Amino acid sequence: MAPVFNVAVLIYPGADILDFNGPLEIYSTYPPEGTPRPFHTTTFSHHNPVKASAGALTVVPDASFSSVEAALENYDILVIPGGDVIKYTSTAEGKEITALIKRFTELKPREEQGSRVLQSVCTGTLLLAAAGILANRTVTTHHMCYEILKKMTDEAAGGESNTNVVRKRWVDAGTTEAGVRIVNAGGVSSGIDASLWVIEQLAGKKVAEWTAELVEFERRKQEDGWGV
User: Fold this and answer.
1) Which of 114, 118, 147, 195 is spaced 20 to 30 Å from 169 by Cα?
2) What digits encode the pLDDT tens for the residues 52-80?
3) Alpha helices in the chain (DSSP H)
4) How do residues 118-147 score in pLDDT, each as one tens digit?
5) Entry pTM
6) Cα-flanking dihedrals φ and ψ of residue 226, to 5°?
7) What is the C-alpha to C-alpha distance for residues 191 and 121, in angstroms, rounded to an integer?
8) How far apart are CA 194 and CA 219, in angstroms?
9) Which overall architecture, per CATH, does domain 9-214 show?
10) Hey, where are the domains in the chain?
């Protein structure tokens, strides 16, 4: 029987709507008939309800931050959306989130699933930078935030981080010592492409192509970063 991957999707005040809803749509889409559902999604937050992007959407999350934190080893994919990140990283909640991110990267994949993925979308990569896990990696984020991403990775490293920030639709930033793969999506809608790529790696090309077809999404290549 094919493994089921548990996906935890963070939502915090001011999180961009498509940053978390894009991956949620992709990971929760039913697979082709006769194929077991490969993903189970859980939204979580410090707040219930939580107001996302400029107060435009109020969400009732599935779980509290503390409950997901307590059972973190049971989640195979952790999705970190972007939004009003820069000022949020210095708050008590922001620090708890960066600590959660760092701890997730230190968890070996579960035996049955065989894979664990940390996925950031848009400026969510800045939270990964604040967690100090992007040194010596090739990464990406929203095209307006490349410089601040490099600055934050250097600050977290206490000097030159040797982080290479690139203009791509998404980036496979490699694995941690524990075997956790880090995937960064570029801005906003890039999170859909990144999620489809993760699905292709974990559940196969057939499921990824079916999902893209069902949601009527034209996939972009990894090299199709936004801007010139």
Assistant:
1) 114
2) 998 899 999 999 999 999 999 999 999 99
3) 17-28, 65-70, 92-105, 124-130, 146-157, 190-203, 205-214
4) 999 999 999 999 999 999 999 999 999 999
5) 0.97
6) -75, 145
7) 5
8) 10
9) 3-Layer(aba) Sandwich (3.40)
10) 9-214
